[in-house]
Design a protein that fits this description.
Elements (H helix, E strand, L loop, with lengths): L1 H13 L19 E6 L4 E5 L9 E4 L6 H16 L2 E6 L5 H6 L3 E4 L15 H15 L5 H16 L15 H10 L6 H11 L17 H4 L3 E5 L6 H20 L10 E6 L2 H4 L5 H8 L5 E7 L7 H4 L4 E4 L5 H11 L3 H8 L6 E5 L9 E5 L10 E7 L5 E6 L6 E6 L4 E7 H10 L4 H13 L3 E3 H10 L4 H11 L3 H16 L14
Parallel strand pairs: 3-8, 3-9, 4-6, 4-7, 5-6, 7-8, 12-16
Antiparallel strand pairs: 1-2, 9-10, 10-11, 12-15, 13-14
Helix pairs in contact: 4-5, 4-9, 5-6, 5-7, 6-7, 9-11, 15-16
Length: 517
Amino acid sequence: MNIVRITLLCRQLAGRIMPLPTPQPGMLISTDGIYLGRIRNYNLPFFWDYRKLVNPHIGLFGVSGSGKSYLIKTFLTRARILWKANALILDWTGEYVDWVRQAGGTVVRLGSESLNLLDCRGMRPVDRAKQLVTSLEILAGLQNAGEKRLVEEALLAAYAKKMEISAPANGEAPTLHDVYGELAGIVGNDSVDAQNAKWRLAQFLRPGNDYFARKSTLDLDALLNGFVCVDLHSLPSEENRGLAAQAILQYAKERMRAQELGNPEIRLFIVADEAWKIARDGRSELIAIAREGRKYSFGLIVASQNPLDVHKDILANVATCVTMRLLLDEQRKYVRESLGYSEGISTETEKFGQGAALFSLVFLNSGSQNAHIIIDKIDGEELLSRVRIRFPVSSSGLWVTSIVPETGNPKLETDAGGEEMTLEFVKNDFRRKLAKFGMDSEQVRMVCERFEASNNELGALEFLNCLERFGFSKSQMMFMLREFGVAEEELVSVFSMMQRKKLNLYADSMAQLEVTE
């Protein structure tokens, strides 16, 4: 009887206690993938490798501040280094703009650039017309069959005047202005459906809001090569942002389908962060890319604060689902039931701090059990973030710096037209340099927080005051600055200024000290 009771109790607890992953060197600990952190309980490194998974797609969920963007930036940086993977980021909030520029990528700002929605890019106009009707239905509010029929007729009529609608398009496409003109000429244009259809198109024709109705200046081919951020946040509405993203995704899908099959190397990661307007609709191009992308070596990353904003067909087609901190019970329940992990794991996710993540993985090897693993902190870095230290002007003029790639150290150059000397470091290298000079991890963190609070730039005196509070002597600080590449005359200048400030003396009360060899 006791054995039976113990057995029943074990079965009840099985669904509540968090199962631990069984580390498999060929699965979780392969060093051929992207390192993201250490697995809880085992303290083993976790490397994400798309070649061992059913597909390269990722769903990422967590509240604002949980670390989603940090994880995406780390992931794309390392994918670029490791696999030379291209990236196309559809940026709803402008969060990736500065980072992509720092990474040497390209930022495209819609509004400044125009995108003719009727461009076919080799498609048949009749097929492009159907795509556009679907996009306008999702994003512009086409309400009924009558409106959709009228818009499709107008699209086909506009195409027919410039190209053969049933053959692959070549030549210059019409614009939404042409479509609006065709709507006005359709019999029965005084009907409610016709008036509504014209009104829905008219919102994209107003001056200043007509970037979808002009000849394209945006090079769509360039979007799929390199490191590209499409900045959508300056567009005036969610509908406009969604329409731009949908058009770009439609083009990316057609280009994807034109690729040769069987290439094992990942070609492109497409990132849609907070794209709720198109992520939750079953007609979205995100779903088509999620279903087909693997065989063309295209990866999709869909991120959202609310997993309920992501269509279930996307969730069903991602082999990696990353759950960070979620606040609402209904969100946690939806993810848990979709991914099939235990209540115990769900309880653990409720305790997540910033950077903690649950990875749910579907392996390619059907004989391997799917894994749910927890990483307490994404071990990432925004590799290209920089910090700057400003120094007072020296007698020799301005000194500015660039980074020597081979060493990571600053290189000083003169520019007589300036007023200050500036040292610049890659942030992660700067952390290592501070540690090298004797700072513990807490002190390094505090210094970096001071930089971050001041837009990653501090004056030399403020930086030295930080060091002094941590117990650094004058000789230690001078040694550090010499190692950073600061010349002796600049050292004299900054430490003289530091001393004057302590004594509350003004510059005209002091004699100028000039150091010569």
